Here is the input.
Amino acid sequence: MKFRDMPYRRVDFEEVRRKFQKLTEELQSARNGQEQFEIHQRYYELTGEVETFSTIASIRHDGDTTDSYYREENDYYDASMPAYQDMVLAYQKILFQSPYRKELEQKIGQVAFKNMELSFKGFDPKIIGLMQEENALATEYSNLLAGAQIEWEGEILNLSLLTPYLQSEDQKIRNKAYKKYTAYFESVGEELDLIYDRLVKNRTEQAKILGYKNYVELGYYRMNRNSYGPTEVEKFREQIKKDFVPFVKKVQERRKARLGLDKLTHKEEGVYFPQGNPKPIGTPEEILKCGQKMYGKLSSETKEFMDFMMENELFDVLGRKTKSGGGYMTYLPNYHAPFIFANFNGTSGDVDVITHECGHAFQGYLSGMDPIREHAEITMETAEIHSMSMEFFTNPWMEDFFGERYKDFLNMQLEDAVIFIPYGTMVDEFQHMIYENPDMTPKQRHETWRKLEEEYRPYLSYEDSFFDEGRIWQKQRHIYMSPFYYIDYVLAQICAFQYKIWMDENYEEAWRSYLELCRLSASDFYGNMLKKVGLKVPFEEGSIKEIVNKLEVKLAERI
Here is the structure.
């Protein structure tokens, strides 16, 4: 069914509560594991309906944040979902404690039960009010950025529509756009400080009520970190500082020389060539059609997936002034349908949507065929492998998108992925420091970020702009809306680099491994899955140095 034709109705959570109560009673009186599994399949139906309607409301709200009807619906789910989570966990506790647990594990897997255990540690009805407030604050932040109105030569742009000017080949235009960009963040700086301060205090209070020292432990539970913790992540960050940051410093020196600059400033952070970055050819509709053609050639599985997406119009990618920023893939369980939301703006980022978000959606499409719903509940460090690796697997077709500048795009893509690693790691360390010291003032948070910049990105200057105060992190939505998510991108990018190296040696073999990883979904733990498909776990000592050595050769070949 086409997305525009999907009916919507507000979920009646009192009715949902009654259905959960009935399911729970039946689960407790079941006589064997098979009976419980059959009841559990009705749980899939109930939760699928709730998630489908709430997701439709969320997508339509994001598509037009000024639409009063869907704004009200979005607010309704912000307030209702914590109590719904309580219903889900109450049901799962009965399942978790089942006398037929071994039989159920054979059907839905050990990972599912481990994730239930983590969910129990991350929730209690006592914190529902705080969770409702947390949701509302995250929405307030999102709406604040979505509502940016920036005057540009007689028209009003939002932050996404300003992006092409921030990446212009004309330095004067970049300077002008950058000045307007920073002026907007300066105008809302105090609001951003206040929202984040309230979020940090809110999340810290939730953690204290649940008996944790600070939000770090609770945040890891909520991210379903089921096979590693802060200790492993800290050691990984140290590898990045020791082996990756010096590598990126050399990459940035080459980029600075290529651009003919005396120093690299934040204004040039997204610019890779003196003649400007390569831009995709054609209209948004033509780019989507080109993507359909590409996936038709890549494999029979990707052809089936992309034809389904196009036929059912499961994309909202056109940039609009009242549209929420950013991009994502989400899933509509009742229709077994992924959905991609983005903001095309005429930059190479439009093609990233067709590769990165479609990587997520392709995996979602495959896992949606699995009758065990828990297998689709993947942790994000795995999910991002699917998206970031697809960016590289689609390299053979980039000439169709960029014409004669496709080689420039491939060089920029690899360089950009390399440069991202220190930034993504810095975001993670920043969040650890913030939640370990929740009483920091806004000024102290900015100073903390600035010190981390000197450690992770010593090659970058802000030229006394507003962002030089250590405020650039306020544009990073994950810091406000999804704490501790960002390191997942870094871990996944390290795995994607492994696929890039592998596919250059044997594309078919690498693709088979990738396809297997997509199908494994959440049927096994993170490290086990990587080893099964022939990838090294990023936490392993020396793994980063080995990848750096191979990437240095690849980038040197492209100079």
